[in-house]
Amino acid sequence: MTKPIHRTATSTSKDLDPLPPHPAHIAWPTEQWARDETTSETTAQADSLFALEPDQGVTYALLVIRHGKLIYERYDAGANPIYMQYSWSMAKSVVHALVGILVGQDKIDLHAPVRVPEWQAEGDPRAAITMDQLLRMSSGLAFNEDYVDGEASDVIPMLMFEGRDDAGAYAANKPAIHPPDHHWAYSSGTTNIICRILRDIVGNGPTGMNAFMEESLFRPLGMRTPTPRYDPSGTFIGSSFLFAIPQDFARFGYLYLRDGVWDGQRILPEGWVDYARTETYRDEEQAYGAHWWLRSDSSWFMASGYDGQRILIAPDKDAIVVRCGRTNVEEIEPIWDKMNRLIEEL
Fold this sequence. Notes:
Elements: E1 3-4, E2 34-35, H1 40-47, E3 58-66, E4 69-75, H2 90-104, H3 131-135, H4 155-160, H5 167-172, E5 183-184, H6 188-202, H7 205-221, E6 227-228, E7 242-243, H8 246-257, E8 261-262, E9 265-266, H9 272-276, E10 281-282, E11 287-288, E12 293-294, E13 301-305, E14 309-314, E15 319-326, H10 332-344
Parallel strand pairs: 2-4
Antiparallel strand pairs: 1-5, 3-4, 3-15, 6-7, 8-9, 10-11, 11-12, 12-13, 13-14, 14-15
Helix pairs in contact: 2-6, 6-7
């Protein structure tokens, strides 16, 4: 369901809490995380994320980083430190980073209309859609973000049935139901349109995209395990499919906690993390920036995915919590409450 954007209610980057610097006496976690003991209270709160009721599913992994140190790491249900985990929609936030790198290379103009073949007919209102509007989920395109109902869903056919050969084209063929920048609607299809654009800019299909991701993002951070999945057209399915070990998801979150800088090297353009966490939409339950979710009552922001995957970043606490697991959407709120309390008590 689309929801109107009320521009007078949105924040600007000037409203954001500052992102903390990396402690000078701590080694960057490129090779391995510095470690520290945590308090018994923090351990007990973190352990509660594994002590779930049967209908709340299972937590496979939980990591807590504070002041650049890994203070808690636990695995369960057969998982271990080298067990690859699903990103699901946490991958969308990785797509945000990839776009930022290309913006920094002057290969993408954030506020210019993107060139999508399906939108080039004379008078097509979709031709005005910009990369900014795609990242902010405010393109105005029709897309039903449903993960259960195969008849109502656009996600299921895009990923598994008629759209699986070219996820970006499937989403790009959706009609405009609102003018751009007037309504917000979370859409996995939007992300795959972006990924098809990235494919064409980078070139050489999956081989080119893999090299671009490795050289520009993963390798500088010491992320050795990220494994993207592609559709047959060669588009990274950035809406949903990036596998990695939890420590690598934590490294990605740490890049954003440190304002896009890693060990003295600027990976993301200056201001790009603030752009991610500048509010596009807010209601009583949620807020959204640019391919990152926001906590509406604090400076916290998060990459979040189906089944309860989350990289939760708390600048005011200089902390990150990574949770990988399997919890259905009806039971997820108690999991989020536990994660919130965990950081609040650090």
